[in-house]
């Protein structure tokens, strides 16, 4: 497992071929997962279900516990509390069985920069003791569009190509579950799009993917998402369900920059207004109580130079609102309040 996997026993290749059968049970099902580092509880009673073949997004501010959770799911960290299964195996007792069937892509590129692409993949294939190494490596090179660069040193690749190489290393042993920890951080939009097209292709072939991200557009490409803050799961469902569950009412206002700035200052903190956020030439004004929000904005709606329209809240609106209501908001363990 992982881009540079731990040495494990030989893995029999699973041959993903189309959607995963539901009869196998969920890919991930955990209840009450808890992890402490010293006195700090960084994952607190976390529960999650991920269906087989699903692309499940995992979002939350920096330090909210996403990586820690991923590491508990694949057996790299021992939970201090909670229970559950990953690919049908007990996450506490059967961590080795899980490791063999999981591909874990860490946040940092962890392959060898002074080896070529092909050498890196051959090394990983050896660690997995794959029987048909040459063929597996050739297939992975082709699948990820890396064949033309196979002799290039990994250290000379751009961020997007490095991520492709890391993904190729993760899928070399045909894992049933991919855990991807912010796989596209710092990667340009075209490379991100191509990476996500590949993730969708892998899911269509039967692989389950749990992927952490800070990008809203990536969250919207997931079948379902979970949002975590300060170690707590705050929301889970499809993007539409998470947005609807936020219970927010939202107005979008268009106008000139200076006018919008003045409006934002006037609305900030008014009763009924929970959030005022500029998005380019549009201001998003939201609150959990529709009538109170309407009352707050009423006096500005005839102001010249402003075009108001009631609209659905965006996913980002919903996340900011969730963060504001999070149990430890403003005094989280890291003292960080940034929203992904
Ligand atoms: N081995 C460790 N020892 C002590 N504290 C740790 C350890 N690993 C993580 N933490 C702390 O646990 C908290 C959760 O970290 P984690 O990396 O799981 O968050 P995250 O949601 O993945 O953050 P990011 O989005 O920045 O990657 C952080 O405050 C982090 O500093």
Automatic annotation (TrEMBL):
KW Ubl conjugation (keyword) present: no
Family matches, as Gene3D superfamilies: P-loop containing nucleotide triphosphate hydrolases
Alphabetized UniProt keyword annotations: ATP-binding, Nucleotide-binding
Ranges of residues in domain ABC transporter: 28-255
Keyword Repressor: no
Region spans: Disordered: 1-25
Origin superkingdom: Bacteria
A single MF term (Gene Ontology): ATP binding
A Pfam family matched in the record: ABC_tran
Protein name: ABC transporter ATP-binding protein
Species in which this protein is naturally found: Pararhodospirillum oryzae
Lineage: Bacteria, Pseudomonadati, Pseudomonadota, Alphaproteobacteria, Rhodospirillales
């Amino acid at each position: 497992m992982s881009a540079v996997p731990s040495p494990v026993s030989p893995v029999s290749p699973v041959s993903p071929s189309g959607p995963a059968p539901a009869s196998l049970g969920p890919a991930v099902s955990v209840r009450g997962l808890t992890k402490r580092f010293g006195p700090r509880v960084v994952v607190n009673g976390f529960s999650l279900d991920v269906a087989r073949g699903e692309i499940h997004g995992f979002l939350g501010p920096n330090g909210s516990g996403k990586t820690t959770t991923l590491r508990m799911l694949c057996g790299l960290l021992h939970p201090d509390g909670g229970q559950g299964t990953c690919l049908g195996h007990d996450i506490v007792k059967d961590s080795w069985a899980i490791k063999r069937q999981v591909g874990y892509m860490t946040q940092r590129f962890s392959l060898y920069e002074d080896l070529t692409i092909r050498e890196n993949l051959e090394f990983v294939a050896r660690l997995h003791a794959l029987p048909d190494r040459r063929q597996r490596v050739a297939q992975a090179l082709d699948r990820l569009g890396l064949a033309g660069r196979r002799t290039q040193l990994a250290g000379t690749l751009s961020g997007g190509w490095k991520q492709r190489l890391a993904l190729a290393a993760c899928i070399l042993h045909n894992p049933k579950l991919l855990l991807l920890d912010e796989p596209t951080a710092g990667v340009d939009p075209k490379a991100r799009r191509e990476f996500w097209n590949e993730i969708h292709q892998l899911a269509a072939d039967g692989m389950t993917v749990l992927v952490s991200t800070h990008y809203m557009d990536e969250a919207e490409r997931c079948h379902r998402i979970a949002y975590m803050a300060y170690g707590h799961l705050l929301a889970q469902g499809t993007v539409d369900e998470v947005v609807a569950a936020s219970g927010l009412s939202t107005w979008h206002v268009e106008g000139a920059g200076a006018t919008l700035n003045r409006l934002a200052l006037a609305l900030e903190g008014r009763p009924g207004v929970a959030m005022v956020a500029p998005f380019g030439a549009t201001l998003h004004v939201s609150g959990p109580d529709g009538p109170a929000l309407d009352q707050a904005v009423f006096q500005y709606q005839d102001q010249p130079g402003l075009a108001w329209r009631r609209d659905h809240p965006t996913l980002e609106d919903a996340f900011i609102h969730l963060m504001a209501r999070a149990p430890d908001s403003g005094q989280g363990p890291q003292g960080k309040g940034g929203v992904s």
